[in-house]
Amino acid sequence: MSKHLIVLFSFSLFTLPSSLAFAADARPNIVVIYADDLGYGDVSCYGATAVATPHIDRIAAEGIRFTDGHAPAATCTPSRYAMLTGQYAWRLKGTGIARGDAPAIIKPGRVTLSSMLQDSGYKTGVVGKWHLGLGPDEGADWNGKIAPGPLEIGFDYCFLIPATGDRVPCVYVENHRVVDLDPNDPIRVSFKKKVGDEPTGAENPELLKIHPSHGHDRTIVNGISRIGYMSGGQRARWVDEDMADRITSKAVAYIEENKADPFFLFFSLHDIHVPRVPHPRFVGTTAMGPRGDAIAQTDWCTGEILAALDRLKLADNTIVLFTSDNGPVVDDGYQDEAAEKLGDHRPAGTLRGGKYSSFEGGTRVPFVLRWPAKVKANQSSDALVCQIDLLHSFAALTGQTLAADAGPDSHNILGALLGEDPKGREHLVEHARTLALRQGVWKYIEPGKGPAVNKNTNTEVGVAPQSQLYNLRADLREQKNLADQHPQRVVKMKAMLDEIRSD
Ligand code: NG6
Ligand code: CA
Q1: Does the reported pTM lie above 0.80?
Q2: CB of 157 within 8 A of CB of 173?
Q3: ipTM metric
Q4: Residue 473 burial by CB count (10 A; 0-12/13-18/19+): exposed, middle or buried?
Q5: Which site among 108, 115, 149, 408 is 20 to 30 Å from 351 CA-CA?
Protein backbone atom coordinates (compact mmCIF):
# COMPACT_ATOMS: atom_id res chain seq x y z
CA MET A 1 0.00 0.00 0.00
CA SER A 2 1.42 3.40 -0.93
CA LYS A 3 1.98 5.97 1.77
CA HIS A 4 -0.76 8.10 0.25
CA LEU A 5 -3.27 5.28 0.55
CA ILE A 6 -2.28 4.53 4.12
CA VAL A 7 -2.89 8.15 5.06
CA LEU A 8 -6.26 8.15 3.35
CA PHE A 9 -7.28 4.91 4.92
CA SER A 10 -6.31 5.82 8.45
CA PHE A 11 -8.04 9.17 7.95
CA SER A 12 -11.21 7.31 7.10
CA LEU A 13 -10.95 5.25 10.25
CA PHE A 14 -10.72 8.38 12.36
CA THR A 15 -13.49 10.31 10.68
CA LEU A 16 -16.08 7.56 10.50
CA PRO A 17 -18.19 6.65 13.49
CA SER A 18 -16.52 3.61 15.08
CA SER A 19 -19.46 1.43 14.07
CA LEU A 20 -18.64 2.20 10.45
CA ALA A 21 -14.89 1.66 10.40
CA PHE A 22 -14.25 -1.22 8.08
CA ALA A 23 -11.43 -2.65 6.05
CA ALA A 24 -11.40 -1.47 2.44
CA ASP A 25 -12.73 -4.76 1.09
CA ALA A 26 -15.65 -4.81 3.53
CA ARG A 27 -17.18 -1.67 2.15
CA PRO A 28 -20.84 -2.09 1.30
CA ASN A 29 -22.13 -2.41 -2.23
CA ILE A 30 -24.52 0.38 -3.15
CA VAL A 31 -27.58 -0.12 -5.33
CA VAL A 32 -29.82 2.83 -6.14
CA ILE A 33 -33.10 1.72 -7.73
CA TYR A 34 -34.57 4.80 -9.35
CA ALA A 35 -38.21 4.67 -10.40
CA ASP A 36 -39.59 7.22 -12.83
CA ASP A 37 -42.61 9.39 -11.97
CA LEU A 38 -43.57 7.16 -9.04
CA GLY A 39 -45.51 9.12 -6.44
CA TYR A 40 -45.47 9.23 -2.67
CA GLY A 41 -48.77 7.33 -2.52
CA ASP A 42 -48.07 4.84 -5.32
CA VAL A 43 -46.56 2.03 -3.22
CA SER A 44 -48.15 0.04 -0.46
CA CYS A 45 -45.61 0.92 2.25
CA TYR A 46 -46.76 4.54 1.78
CA GLY A 47 -50.44 3.68 1.92
CA ALA A 48 -51.46 2.45 -1.54
CA THR A 49 -54.06 -0.31 -1.46
CA ALA A 50 -55.03 -0.56 -5.13
CA VAL A 51 -51.63 -2.05 -5.95
CA ALA A 52 -49.36 -4.24 -3.83
CA THR A 53 -45.61 -3.61 -3.85
CA PRO A 54 -44.25 -6.36 -1.58
CA HIS A 55 -40.63 -6.06 -2.71
CA ILE A 56 -40.42 -2.30 -2.22
CA ASP A 57 -42.21 -2.79 1.11
CA ARG A 58 -39.61 -5.41 2.02
CA ILE A 59 -36.82 -2.84 1.71
CA ALA A 60 -38.73 -0.62 4.13
CA ALA A 61 -39.47 -3.49 6.52
CA GLU A 62 -35.84 -4.57 6.58
CA GLY A 63 -34.57 -0.99 6.78
CA ILE A 64 -35.87 2.57 6.94
CA ARG A 65 -38.85 4.25 5.39
CA PHE A 66 -38.35 8.01 5.06
CA THR A 67 -41.48 10.15 5.21
CA ASP A 68 -39.73 13.32 4.01
CA GLY A 69 -37.37 12.01 1.32
CA HIS A 70 -36.94 14.07 -1.83
CA ALA A 71 -35.89 14.07 -5.40
CA PRO A 72 -33.95 17.27 -6.09
CA ALA A 73 -36.48 18.43 -8.71
CA ALA A 74 -40.01 17.80 -9.94
CA THR A 75 -38.87 16.47 -13.33
CA CYS A 76 -36.36 13.92 -14.47
CA THR A 77 -33.29 15.54 -16.02
CA PRO A 78 -32.70 18.10 -13.25
CA SER A 79 -33.23 15.45 -10.56
CA ARG A 80 -30.70 13.09 -12.12
CA TYR A 81 -28.26 15.90 -12.78
CA ALA A 82 -28.42 16.99 -9.15
CA MET A 83 -28.23 13.49 -7.74
CA LEU A 84 -25.11 12.67 -9.75
CA THR A 85 -23.28 16.01 -9.39
CA GLY A 86 -24.45 17.21 -5.98
CA GLN A 87 -25.27 20.59 -7.50
CA TYR A 88 -28.80 21.98 -7.74
CA ALA A 89 -29.78 21.86 -11.40
CA TRP A 90 -31.34 25.34 -11.33
CA ARG A 91 -27.81 26.73 -10.97
CA LEU A 92 -26.92 25.63 -14.50
CA LYS A 93 -28.65 26.41 -17.79
CA GLY A 94 -29.51 23.49 -20.05
CA THR A 95 -30.48 21.08 -17.27
CA GLY A 96 -34.23 21.09 -17.96
CA ILE A 97 -36.04 18.06 -19.47
CA ALA A 98 -33.57 16.96 -22.16
CA ARG A 99 -34.42 16.20 -25.76
CA GLY A 100 -33.54 12.77 -27.08
CA ASP A 101 -30.64 14.23 -29.05
CA ALA A 102 -29.29 16.47 -26.29
CA PRO A 103 -25.51 16.44 -25.84
CA ALA A 104 -23.98 15.14 -22.60
CA ILE A 105 -25.07 17.55 -19.89
CA ILE A 106 -22.53 16.48 -17.26
CA LYS A 107 -19.16 17.19 -18.78
CA PRO A 108 -16.19 14.86 -18.33
CA GLY A 109 -14.02 16.00 -15.45
CA ARG A 110 -16.90 16.76 -13.12
CA VAL A 111 -16.88 15.00 -9.78
CA THR A 112 -19.95 12.79 -9.72
CA LEU A 113 -21.40 10.18 -7.43
CA SER A 114 -20.04 7.56 -9.81
CA SER A 115 -16.57 9.10 -10.26
CA MET A 116 -16.19 9.48 -6.50
CA LEU A 117 -17.03 5.81 -5.93
CA GLN A 118 -14.90 4.74 -8.88
CA ASP A 119 -11.95 6.67 -7.44
CA SER A 120 -12.41 4.91 -4.15
CA GLY A 121 -12.16 1.51 -5.85
CA TYR A 122 -15.79 0.68 -6.55
CA LYS A 123 -16.95 -0.92 -9.78
CA THR A 124 -19.63 1.42 -11.11
CA GLY A 125 -22.49 0.74 -13.50
CA VAL A 126 -25.68 2.39 -14.72
CA VAL A 127 -28.51 0.41 -16.29
CA GLY A 128 -31.74 1.93 -17.62
CA LYS A 129 -33.00 5.42 -18.26
CA TRP A 130 -30.29 8.05 -18.68
CA HIS A 131 -31.90 11.29 -19.91
CA LEU A 132 -28.79 13.35 -19.23
CA GLY A 133 -27.74 13.72 -22.85
CA LEU A 134 -25.09 11.85 -24.82
CA GLY A 135 -22.31 12.91 -27.15
CA PRO A 136 -20.51 16.16 -27.93
CA ASP A 137 -22.23 19.52 -28.32
CA GLU A 138 -22.83 18.80 -32.04
CA GLY A 139 -24.88 15.76 -30.97
CA ALA A 140 -24.25 12.03 -30.62
CA ASP A 141 -23.13 9.84 -33.51
CA TRP A 142 -25.78 7.12 -33.15
CA ASN A 143 -24.05 5.04 -35.80
CA GLY A 144 -20.56 5.22 -34.34
CA LYS A 145 -18.95 5.76 -30.98
CA ILE A 146 -21.38 7.54 -28.66
CA ALA A 147 -19.30 9.65 -26.30
CA PRO A 148 -19.08 11.39 -23.95
CA GLY A 149 -21.65 9.72 -21.77
CA PRO A 150 -21.71 7.81 -18.49
CA LEU A 151 -18.35 6.14 -19.17
CA GLU A 152 -16.69 9.55 -19.25
CA ILE A 153 -18.09 10.62 -15.86
CA GLY A 154 -17.16 7.70 -13.68
CA PHE A 155 -19.21 4.70 -14.75
CA ASP A 156 -17.33 1.55 -15.85
CA TYR A 157 -20.38 0.13 -17.57
CA CYS A 158 -23.67 1.35 -18.99
CA PHE A 159 -26.73 -0.11 -20.66
CA LEU A 160 -29.04 2.76 -21.47
CA ILE A 161 -32.38 3.95 -22.60
CA PRO A 162 -30.74 7.13 -23.97
CA ALA A 163 -33.49 9.60 -22.97
CA THR A 164 -37.03 8.45 -22.14
CA GLY A 165 -39.39 5.78 -23.41
CA ASP A 166 -41.48 8.41 -25.15
CA ARG A 167 -38.59 10.04 -27.03
CA VAL A 168 -36.53 8.92 -29.98
CA PRO A 169 -34.06 7.29 -30.48
CA CYS A 170 -35.91 4.13 -29.37
CA VAL A 171 -32.80 1.95 -29.10
CA TYR A 172 -30.55 0.75 -26.30
CA VAL A 173 -26.98 1.96 -25.93
CA GLU A 174 -24.43 -0.33 -24.29
CA ASN A 175 -21.20 1.38 -23.36
CA HIS A 176 -20.40 3.43 -26.49
CA ARG A 177 -22.63 1.75 -29.08
CA VAL A 178 -26.23 1.24 -30.08
CA VAL A 179 -27.09 -2.40 -29.38
CA ASP A 180 -27.87 -4.59 -32.42
CA LEU A 181 -27.38 -1.83 -34.95
CA ASP A 182 -27.30 -2.93 -38.59
CA PRO A 183 -24.65 -0.76 -40.29
CA ASN A 184 -26.70 -0.92 -43.50
CA ASP A 185 -29.65 0.70 -41.76
CA PRO A 186 -28.19 3.78 -40.08
CA ILE A 187 -30.14 5.76 -37.51
CA ARG A 188 -31.14 9.36 -38.07
CA VAL A 189 -32.73 11.45 -35.36
CA SER A 190 -34.26 14.91 -35.44
CA PHE A 191 -36.42 16.94 -33.11
CA LYS A 192 -36.95 19.66 -35.68
CA LYS A 193 -38.14 18.06 -38.90
CA LYS A 194 -39.18 14.71 -40.23
CA VAL A 195 -36.36 12.39 -41.27
CA GLY A 196 -36.99 9.40 -43.56
CA ASP A 197 -40.43 8.37 -44.72
CA GLU A 198 -41.83 6.43 -41.79
CA PRO A 199 -45.35 7.30 -40.66
CA THR A 200 -46.02 9.56 -37.70
CA GLY A 201 -48.83 9.45 -35.18
CA ALA A 202 -50.18 12.74 -36.53
CA GLU A 203 -50.30 11.47 -40.12
CA ASN A 204 -51.38 7.88 -39.55
CA PRO A 205 -53.27 7.56 -36.26
CA GLU A 206 -54.89 4.34 -37.56
CA LEU A 207 -51.50 2.61 -37.11
CA LEU A 208 -51.35 3.29 -33.38
CA LYS A 209 -52.03 0.86 -30.56
CA ILE A 210 -51.95 3.70 -28.01
CA HIS A 211 -53.01 7.20 -28.94
CA PRO A 212 -51.44 10.37 -27.60
CA SER A 213 -53.50 12.74 -25.46
CA HIS A 214 -51.07 15.63 -25.90
CA GLY A 215 -47.80 15.80 -27.87
CA HIS A 216 -46.22 12.42 -28.66
CA ASP A 217 -47.43 12.30 -32.27
CA ARG A 218 -44.22 11.94 -34.25
CA THR A 219 -42.43 8.78 -35.43
CA ILE A 220 -44.26 5.53 -34.71
CA VAL A 221 -42.16 2.82 -33.07
CA ASN A 222 -43.80 -0.44 -31.97
CA GLY A 223 -47.26 1.02 -32.68
CA ILE A 224 -46.63 4.01 -30.38
CA SER A 225 -45.92 7.50 -31.62
CA ARG A 226 -43.10 9.32 -29.83
CA ILE A 227 -41.61 12.77 -29.27
CA GLY A 228 -39.23 13.46 -32.16
CA TYR A 229 -38.43 11.83 -35.48
CA MET A 230 -36.19 8.91 -36.26
CA SER A 231 -35.49 6.67 -39.21
CA GLY A 232 -33.39 3.53 -39.62
CA GLY A 233 -32.10 1.28 -36.86
CA GLN A 234 -35.05 -1.10 -37.33
CA ARG A 235 -33.26 -4.13 -35.92
CA ALA A 236 -32.08 -2.16 -32.89
CA ARG A 237 -35.47 -0.75 -31.87
CA TRP A 238 -36.78 -1.67 -28.50
CA VAL A 239 -40.03 -3.42 -27.75
CA ASP A 240 -41.69 -1.54 -24.91
CA GLU A 241 -43.32 -4.68 -23.50
CA ASP A 242 -39.85 -6.24 -23.01
CA MET A 243 -38.10 -3.20 -21.60
CA ALA A 244 -38.41 -4.06 -17.91
CA ASP A 245 -37.17 -7.62 -18.51
CA ARG A 246 -34.32 -6.40 -20.66
CA ILE A 247 -32.93 -3.84 -18.25
CA THR A 248 -33.53 -6.02 -15.19
CA SER A 249 -31.57 -8.90 -16.70
CA LYS A 250 -28.72 -6.48 -17.46
CA ALA A 251 -28.81 -5.14 -13.90
CA VAL A 252 -28.76 -8.64 -12.42
CA ALA A 253 -25.92 -9.67 -14.75
CA TYR A 254 -23.98 -6.59 -13.64
CA ILE A 255 -24.36 -7.60 -9.99
CA GLU A 256 -23.27 -11.16 -10.75
CA GLU A 257 -20.21 -10.01 -12.70
CA ASN A 258 -19.10 -7.60 -10.01
CA LYS A 259 -19.91 -9.56 -6.90
CA ALA A 260 -16.27 -9.91 -5.89
CA ASP A 261 -15.70 -6.14 -5.66
CA PRO A 262 -17.54 -3.41 -3.90
CA PHE A 263 -19.89 -2.14 -6.60
CA PHE A 264 -22.25 0.73 -7.23
CA LEU A 265 -25.24 0.08 -9.45
CA PHE A 266 -27.55 2.88 -10.55
CA PHE A 267 -30.57 0.92 -11.76
CA SER A 268 -32.78 3.46 -13.43
CA LEU A 269 -36.18 2.06 -14.30
CA HIS A 270 -38.33 3.17 -17.20
CA ASP A 271 -41.52 2.57 -15.21
CA ILE A 272 -43.88 4.21 -14.55
CA HIS A 273 -43.11 6.87 -17.16
CA VAL A 274 -45.18 7.02 -20.34
CA PRO A 275 -45.74 5.17 -22.55
CA ARG A 276 -46.93 2.67 -19.97
CA VAL A 277 -46.69 -0.65 -21.73
CA PRO A 278 -45.95 -3.33 -19.15
CA HIS A 279 -45.18 -6.90 -20.15
CA PRO A 280 -48.37 -8.94 -20.82
CA ARG A 281 -47.84 -10.89 -17.58
CA PHE A 282 -48.53 -7.69 -15.61
CA VAL A 283 -51.47 -6.54 -17.72
CA GLY A 284 -54.62 -6.65 -15.63
CA THR A 285 -52.81 -7.40 -12.36
CA THR A 286 -54.35 -4.20 -10.97
CA ALA A 287 -57.70 -2.57 -11.65
CA MET A 288 -55.94 0.68 -12.55
CA GLY A 289 -54.96 -0.11 -16.12
CA PRO A 290 -51.43 0.37 -17.47
CA ARG A 291 -50.37 2.87 -14.81
CA GLY A 292 -51.19 0.46 -11.98
CA ASP A 293 -49.80 -2.53 -13.87
CA ALA A 294 -46.56 -0.61 -14.45
CA ILE A 295 -46.30 -0.10 -10.68
CA ALA A 296 -46.63 -3.87 -10.25
CA GLN A 297 -43.86 -4.28 -12.82
CA THR A 298 -41.68 -1.76 -10.95
CA ASP A 299 -42.07 -3.88 -7.87
CA TRP A 300 -41.12 -7.01 -9.81
CA CYS A 301 -37.91 -5.34 -11.10
CA THR A 302 -37.06 -4.42 -7.52
CA GLY A 303 -37.73 -7.97 -6.35
CA GLU A 304 -35.37 -9.38 -8.97
CA ILE A 305 -32.55 -7.22 -7.61
CA LEU A 306 -33.28 -8.27 -4.03
CA ALA A 307 -33.44 -11.94 -5.12
CA ALA A 308 -30.07 -11.64 -6.89
CA LEU A 309 -28.50 -10.13 -3.77
CA ASP A 310 -29.97 -12.97 -1.67
CA ARG A 311 -28.81 -15.64 -4.10
CA LEU A 312 -25.27 -14.25 -4.19
CA LYS A 313 -25.26 -13.78 -0.41
CA LEU A 314 -24.61 -10.08 -0.84
CA ALA A 315 -27.76 -8.74 0.80
CA ASP A 316 -26.28 -8.21 4.25
CA ASN A 317 -23.58 -5.79 3.16
CA THR A 318 -25.39 -4.03 0.33
CA ILE A 319 -27.11 -0.68 0.71
CA VAL A 320 -30.28 -0.71 -1.37
CA LEU A 321 -32.00 2.63 -1.83
CA PHE A 322 -35.31 2.66 -3.67
CA THR A 323 -36.66 6.06 -4.66
CA SER A 324 -38.17 8.04 -7.56
CA ASP A 325 -36.96 10.90 -9.77
CA ASN A 326 -40.03 13.09 -9.27
CA GLY A 327 -43.64 12.94 -8.15
CA PRO A 328 -46.55 11.33 -9.93
CA VAL A 329 -48.51 12.34 -13.01
CA VAL A 330 -51.63 10.62 -14.28
CA ASP A 331 -52.08 11.79 -17.89
CA ASP A 332 -48.60 12.56 -19.19
CA GLY A 333 -49.46 12.46 -22.86
CA TYR A 334 -51.04 9.12 -23.85
CA GLN A 335 -54.63 7.89 -23.62
CA ASP A 336 -53.84 4.99 -21.32
CA GLU A 337 -56.89 5.17 -19.06
CA ALA A 338 -54.76 6.28 -16.12
CA ALA A 339 -57.28 8.94 -15.08
CA GLU A 340 -60.37 6.89 -15.86
CA LYS A 341 -59.23 3.89 -13.83
CA LEU A 342 -57.65 5.68 -10.90
CA GLY A 343 -60.59 5.01 -8.57
CA ASP A 344 -59.72 5.98 -4.99
CA HIS A 345 -55.98 5.63 -5.54
CA ARG A 346 -54.07 8.80 -4.73
CA PRO A 347 -50.71 8.79 -6.55
CA ALA A 348 -49.27 11.53 -4.32
CA GLY A 349 -50.87 10.13 -1.17
CA THR A 350 -51.94 12.96 1.11
CA LEU A 351 -49.67 15.46 -0.63
CA ARG A 352 -50.75 18.25 -2.96
CA GLY A 353 -49.45 18.50 -6.54
CA GLY A 354 -47.28 16.01 -8.38
CA LYS A 355 -44.72 15.93 -11.19
CA TYR A 356 -43.96 19.51 -12.38
CA SER A 357 -45.20 20.95 -9.06
CA SER A 358 -43.72 23.10 -6.28
CA PHE A 359 -46.14 21.54 -3.83
CA GLU A 360 -44.77 18.59 -1.87
CA GLY A 361 -46.15 16.06 -4.36
CA GLY A 362 -43.55 17.32 -6.84
CA THR A 363 -40.43 16.14 -5.08
CA ARG A 364 -41.42 14.20 -1.95
CA VAL A 365 -41.26 10.60 -3.12
CA PRO A 366 -40.96 7.05 -1.82
CA PHE A 367 -37.53 6.77 -0.21
CA VAL A 368 -36.64 3.47 1.47
CA LEU A 369 -33.20 2.23 2.37
CA ARG A 370 -31.90 -1.12 3.58
CA TRP A 371 -28.48 -2.16 4.84
CA PRO A 372 -28.92 -5.18 7.08
CA ALA A 373 -25.31 -5.18 8.34
CA LYS A 374 -25.57 -1.68 9.82
CA VAL A 375 -29.12 -0.36 9.76
CA LYS A 376 -31.83 -1.57 12.11
CA ALA A 377 -34.96 -2.99 10.49
CA ASN A 378 -38.44 -1.55 10.67
CA GLN A 379 -37.57 2.09 11.13
CA SER A 380 -39.54 5.10 10.05
CA SER A 381 -37.73 8.43 9.83
CA ASP A 382 -39.11 11.96 9.42
CA ALA A 383 -35.64 13.35 8.67
CA LEU A 384 -35.44 15.73 5.71
CA VAL A 385 -33.30 13.85 3.18
CA CYS A 386 -32.63 14.35 -0.51
CA GLN A 387 -31.03 12.35 -3.29
CA ILE A 388 -28.64 15.26 -3.88
CA ASP A 389 -26.94 14.24 -0.61
CA LEU A 390 -25.81 10.84 -1.82
CA LEU A 391 -22.54 12.30 -3.11
CA HIS A 392 -21.28 13.72 0.18
CA SER A 393 -22.92 11.03 2.33
CA PHE A 394 -21.42 8.13 0.40
CA ALA A 395 -18.08 9.97 0.20
CA ALA A 396 -18.11 10.05 3.99
CA LEU A 397 -19.15 6.41 4.10
CA THR A 398 -16.26 5.33 1.91
CA GLY A 399 -13.72 7.66 3.51
CA GLN A 400 -13.33 9.96 0.52
CA THR A 401 -12.32 13.58 0.82
CA LEU A 402 -13.91 15.61 -1.95
CA ALA A 403 -12.47 18.74 -3.53
CA ALA A 404 -13.84 21.89 -1.91
CA ASP A 405 -15.98 22.78 -4.92
CA ALA A 406 -17.38 19.28 -5.54
CA GLY A 407 -21.12 18.81 -5.04
CA PRO A 408 -21.71 22.28 -3.56
CA ASP A 409 -25.34 21.57 -2.63
CA SER A 410 -24.82 18.02 -1.38
CA HIS A 411 -24.74 17.58 2.40
CA ASN A 412 -23.28 14.74 4.38
CA ILE A 413 -26.43 13.33 5.96
CA LEU A 414 -25.08 9.82 6.43
CA GLY A 415 -26.36 9.74 10.01
CA ALA A 416 -29.91 10.40 8.82
CA LEU A 417 -29.66 7.90 5.98
CA LEU A 418 -28.55 5.22 8.43
CA GLY A 419 -31.29 6.04 10.93
CA GLU A 420 -29.02 7.59 13.55
CA ASP A 421 -29.96 11.25 13.10
CA PRO A 422 -33.69 12.09 13.20
CA LYS A 423 -33.27 15.53 11.61
CA GLY A 424 -31.38 15.39 8.33
CA ARG A 425 -30.91 18.58 6.33
CA GLU A 426 -31.32 22.03 7.86
CA HIS A 427 -32.91 23.28 4.68
CA LEU A 428 -33.71 22.12 1.16
CA VAL A 429 -34.52 23.95 -2.06
CA GLU A 430 -37.28 22.22 -3.99
CA HIS A 431 -37.07 22.81 -7.73
CA ALA A 432 -40.08 23.00 -10.03
CA ARG A 433 -41.27 25.94 -12.18
CA THR A 434 -40.55 28.13 -9.16
CA LEU A 435 -38.19 27.43 -6.29
CA ALA A 436 -39.38 26.60 -2.80
CA LEU A 437 -37.42 26.52 0.44
CA ARG A 438 -37.97 24.00 3.21
CA GLN A 439 -36.73 24.85 6.69
CA GLY A 440 -38.00 23.15 9.83
CA VAL A 441 -41.79 22.97 9.69
CA TRP A 442 -41.91 25.83 7.19
CA LYS A 443 -42.11 25.92 3.45
CA TYR A 444 -41.84 29.06 1.37
CA ILE A 445 -42.72 29.03 -2.34
CA GLU A 446 -41.48 32.08 -4.17
CA PRO A 447 -43.88 34.06 -6.37
CA GLY A 448 -43.94 33.11 -10.04
CA LYS A 449 -45.61 33.88 -13.32
CA GLY A 450 -47.83 31.58 -15.32
CA PRO A 451 -50.82 29.33 -14.93
CA ALA A 452 -51.49 27.64 -11.58
CA VAL A 453 -52.52 24.42 -13.29
CA ASN A 454 -50.86 22.49 -16.10
CA LYS A 455 -53.99 21.86 -18.15
CA ASN A 456 -52.56 18.96 -20.13
CA THR A 457 -51.55 16.92 -17.13
CA ASN A 458 -54.09 18.43 -14.73
CA THR A 459 -51.37 19.16 -12.16
CA GLU A 460 -51.39 22.04 -9.68
CA VAL A 461 -47.90 23.35 -10.35
CA GLY A 462 -47.79 25.57 -7.27
CA VAL A 463 -47.13 28.78 -9.19
CA ALA A 464 -48.82 31.90 -7.78
CA PRO A 465 -48.12 35.63 -8.22
CA GLN A 466 -47.80 36.05 -4.44
CA SER A 467 -45.52 34.44 -1.85
CA GLN A 468 -46.77 31.21 -0.33
CA LEU A 469 -45.91 30.05 3.16
CA TYR A 470 -47.08 26.79 4.68
CA ASN A 471 -46.60 25.15 8.04
CA LEU A 472 -46.16 21.54 6.98
CA ARG A 473 -46.49 20.17 10.50
CA ALA A 474 -50.01 21.59 10.82
CA ASP A 475 -50.88 21.56 7.12
CA LEU A 476 -48.98 18.92 5.14
CA ARG A 477 -51.42 19.34 2.24
CA GLU A 478 -50.47 22.99 1.78
CA GLN A 479 -54.00 24.34 1.94
CA LYS A 480 -53.57 27.44 4.07
CA ASN A 481 -51.21 30.11 2.80
CA LEU A 482 -49.88 31.84 5.95
CA ALA A 483 -47.75 34.45 4.14
CA ASP A 484 -49.96 37.34 5.25
CA GLN A 485 -49.96 36.16 8.87
CA HIS A 486 -46.18 35.73 9.05
CA PRO A 487 -44.66 38.50 6.91
CA GLN A 488 -41.39 38.43 8.86
CA ARG A 489 -40.90 34.74 8.19
CA VAL A 490 -41.57 35.29 4.49
CA VAL A 491 -38.90 38.02 4.40
CA LYS A 492 -36.42 35.77 6.22
CA MET A 493 -37.03 32.73 4.05
CA LYS A 494 -36.91 34.78 0.86
CA ALA A 495 -33.58 36.22 1.98
CA MET A 496 -32.27 32.76 2.76
CA LEU A 497 -33.36 31.43 -0.62
CA ASP A 498 -31.70 34.43 -2.31
CA GLU A 499 -28.53 33.76 -0.36
CA ILE A 500 -28.46 30.09 -1.37
CA ARG A 501 -29.13 31.15 -4.95
CA SER A 502 -26.20 33.55 -4.98
CA ASP A 503 -23.74 31.05 -3.45
C1 NG6 B 1 -42.71 16.36 -21.28
C2 NG6 B 1 -43.57 15.33 -21.98
C3 NG6 B 1 -43.92 14.24 -20.99
C4 NG6 B 1 -42.67 13.66 -20.38
C5 NG6 B 1 -41.82 14.77 -19.79
C6 NG6 B 1 -40.51 14.29 -19.28
C7 NG6 B 1 -44.98 16.27 -23.78
C8 NG6 B 1 -46.27 16.92 -24.14
N9 NG6 B 1 -44.80 15.95 -22.50
O10 NG6 B 1 -42.33 17.35 -22.16
O11 NG6 B 1 -44.68 13.25 -21.61
O12 NG6 B 1 -41.94 12.98 -21.35
O13 NG6 B 1 -41.55 15.74 -20.76
O14 NG6 B 1 -40.68 13.48 -18.18
O15 NG6 B 1 -44.14 16.05 -24.64
S16 NG6 B 1 -39.45 13.22 -17.26
O17 NG6 B 1 -39.95 12.39 -16.17
O18 NG6 B 1 -38.47 12.52 -18.07
O19 NG6 B 1 -39.00 14.51 -16.79
CA1 CA C 1 -39.49 11.36 -14.22
Answers
A1: yes
A2: no
A3: 0.98
A4: exposed
A5: 408
